[in-house]
Amino acid sequence: MSVERVNKILEHWGATLSQIELILPRAIESEIQQREQYIIAINECLQLLYRESSEQKNFMNHVSKSLFFKGRKPLAVITSGTLDDLAQAHQSIRSMVCI
Length: 99
Fold this sequence. Notes:
The protein is mostly helical. It has one domain. The chain is 68% helix and 0% strand. The protein has 6 helices and no strands. It has helices at residues 3-12, 17-23, 29-49, 53-61, 74-78, 83-97. α3 (29-49) packs parallel to α6. The radius of gyration is 12 Å and the shape is globular.
């Protein structure tokens, strides 16, 4: 995976440097790869859901009514730093594509 590519995605979503560090902490290489895969997969789902990149960014930065997000911003959820939140955010966004 490319850390540079993932950083660009996160920056596009409006993540700050400190948020990026929470999402991609210094950890075991296999966990970093998992995190990168989730970010790329979320981005791919957003591209299927929204044609405009500005809409993708808006989704990540606005309160979501999705059951998982419970009125939270998706970007805020994934910046919790836990791998579980990142995985669940991916599942929730992916399920929106499958509806």
